[in-house]
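thought: fold this chain, then report.
action: predict
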Amino acid sequence: MAKVKVWDLPIRLFHWILVACFAFLFLSGETGYLFDWHPVIGIAVLALLLFRIIWGFVGSTTARFSNFLYSPARIIAYAKTLLSRSAEPHAGHNPLGGLMVFAMLAGLLFQGFTGLFTTDDVLVEGPLYSYVDESTAEWFGSLHHQSFEILMPFVVLHIAAIIFYRVYKKANLVTPMINGYNELPEAEAGQLKMVSGWVGVVLMAACYAVLYFTFRWLAGY
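observation:
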């Protein structure tokens, strides 16, 4: 086994910024506290997702979608070993983890997209709210709330999986997402290619700038 870098800096930044943004959106949406910042942070999430999609094709080995796009047979085979005490090392996401990533990205994209057309009729409205009529905006608002109810169980399951791996399989999934390093078989470790972190950071900032100014222009600001 060799201790190697498995998560690049952009992926780690993406993950933890997304966690912070989601927590804020949840609290502001449920309590109304600082709700005027809700659409601002929502656009930040869309920028993060845009970055993640691009990085999924041009980023480091473990960041690429091809690295954790497993066949149904592979996913089922891995699921059958889930109750084993030992955790099979993976350079990146395991088959079930990869499936969860795709599900959560899709859910977050849908949440962000529908939020662009919604309003609370009091404080805020999405940047594209003026492009639809009132009934359509209400429909998007309904989808925005309903999709959140679907997304939350995935978030809870994601957290439960991290706890399960830590307690039952003695595999720490959090620390590698903080410092970037994990232990892998040497043969597998030698196949990993890391793209410069600065490339990803600049791309992430560019994604935010593009969406921020585009939505301001569309909203007439």
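thought: worth noting. The chain has a mean pLDDT of 94.
final: tokens above.
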